[in-house]
# Entry
Amino acid sequence: MRKLVIGAAMALALAACDQAATQPEGTTEEGAMTGTPFEKLADGREVTKWDLRGADGSGPIIMDLGATILSLQAPDMAGEMADVTFGFDTAAPYLTDSPYFGAVVGRYANRIKEGKFSLDGKDYTLAINNEPNTLHGGKVGFDKRVWKGEPVTTADGKGVKFTLVSPDGEEGYPGEVTVSTTYVWTADHKLIVDFDATTTANTPFNIAQHSYWNLAGANTAKTVLDHTLQINADKYTPVTKNLIPTGELPPVEGTPFDFRTAKPIGRDIGQSNEQLTFGGGFDHNWVLNGSGMRVAAVLVDPTSGRRMTVSTDQPGLQFYSGNFLDGKVTGKGGNAYPYRSAVALETQYFPDSPNQTGFPDATLRPGKPFHSRTIYAFDTVATN
Ligand code: GLA
# Structure
C-alpha cells in the first residue's frame, strides 16, 4: 500500500514536471502567449519580451520597448539557424546607445527639414535630434516608448500586437495618435508587420521598422558589402548634404543607385558620386515601382544562401548601408558592430514629405485610419 502511494505521488510529480517542460516560457497552459519580464529600466518602466519563435526555432523575439525586434533566427541552406539582426542583450542600451536597432520609428520616420513644417496654414516646430533636422520622431520617438503588448492569433500564425498613444503635442506634432504594430511569424518563415493608426487632428505620420540585417549572422562581424541587393525602383530621391531630399525624382539608370538587377552592395558604393559622400554611402529613399503590395527589395548573403524578400504597400524604401556603424557600439554577445556590417531597409513614405509638395501625402487625418503592411520573408537560394 505504502509503495503504491509513493508511486502515485511520484507519477503526479513527474506529470507536473512534464507539463512545465512542454509549456514554453511566455505562454499560458492553454498555449496563449503572455510575454515574459525582460528588464526594469532605471526610470522604473517594466520591459516585457515576447517569443514568437516556431517549433523549428526560427523567428523573432520582440520587446515592448520600441516594439523592437531583439533577435530573429533564420535557417541557412543546411538548416543552421543564425540570429540575423543587430541589437543588445539587455533593454537599457536601447535608450542610450542604439542607432534604432530593431525598433519601430515614428511619429515621422526619417528626416523632416530643420524640424519645421506647415499644415492647414499653421507652422509647427519639432524637437531637433539630428542637427539640423528631426529624425525618426524626435528626442523621444516611438522607439523609446514602452508599448502595450497583447497576444494575437491570426490565420497566418501567432503574434503580438503592440499599442501606443502618442499625445497631442508630443515632440511638437499635432493631434493624439493611437498607433499599433502587429507582428506575426509564420510557419514558412515570414515576419508579417502590420501598422495601424488613427488621429484626433491632421498630422504628418510615417512609420517604419528599423531592423539592421546581416544575413550571414549578426555575430559574424563581416561587412554586408558582398550581400547582393535588388530594389524594385526606377527612381530615387537625391538629398542635400544634410540628407534632406532635394525634391527631384531622377532615374537610377546609369548611377550607383541602380539596384534594378541584383548586385553586391559594395560594387558601386565607392564610386565617385556626390550623393554617396553625404551619408558616407547609401542612405537614400528609393521610389518603389507600382503600388499595392509588391516586392520592394531582395537581400541575399551568398555565403549562407540566406535570402530576405521585403514586400510592402508603402511608396518608398530607405536603404541605409550602415555607414554610421563604427565598431564603437557593443551589441549582443559583446560584438562591436563594424562599419557597414548591416543594412536597414525601411519601408516608408518619402523623407521630409511634409515640406515636399511633389511627394505622396503623408498626412494622417481624423476619420481616415492608416493601415500598412510589410512582410520580411526568409528562405535560402543556391549561390555558388
Ligand atoms: C536612418 C537614417 C540614417 C541614420 C540611421 C541611424 O536609417 O537614414 O541616416 O541616421 O537611421 O543611425
About this structure: The domain at 8-380 is CATH 2.70.98.10 (Beta-galactosidase; Chain A, domain 5). The chain has one domain: 8-380. The CA atoms of residues 170 and 176 lie 8 Å apart.
